[in-house]
Amino acid sequence: MPRRLRRGFLYYLTDGREKYIWWCDGREQLFDLQNDPRELCDLVESEPQKLENWRQKLIEKLRERPEGWSDGATLTANQPYFHSMPHAVLG
Question: Is residue 27 assigned to a domain?
Fold first, then answer.
């Protein structure tokens, strides 16, 4: 089966107050859910420290996953992967 990238694929983390979104093409978004519950104001440019904190959390969460989105130090954008992961297929 060929490996290919799904367009628009994303991961997100939230603590209920803030939400961080990482699109697998490398785009990022950060929202303050308490003051912007409709997610209209992206804080990526204005909150670099918060952005970095969330990015590090996602790097750690994805580190052990087989898709290859994180090597434990960075996020890897545009990483091709199988739509059906071999570890998830039941024999």
Answer: yes
Reported pTM: 0.80
Tokens of 85: 């992961």
Classify residue 90: in a domain, yes or no: no
pLDDT in tens, 53-83: 999 999 999 998 888 889 999 999 987 765 5
51: domain CATH number is 3.30.1120.10
> Average pLDDT, stretch 34-57?
98
Three-state SS letters, 46-80? CCHHHHHHHHHHHHHHHCCCCCCCECCCCECCCCC
Q: CA-CA distance, 23 to 7, in Å (whole number)?
A: 9
Pick from 21, 9, 11, 23: nearest CA to 62: 11
Which structural domain, as residue segments, surrounds residue 26? Answer: 10-74
From CA 19, how far away is CA 11, in angstroms rounded? 11
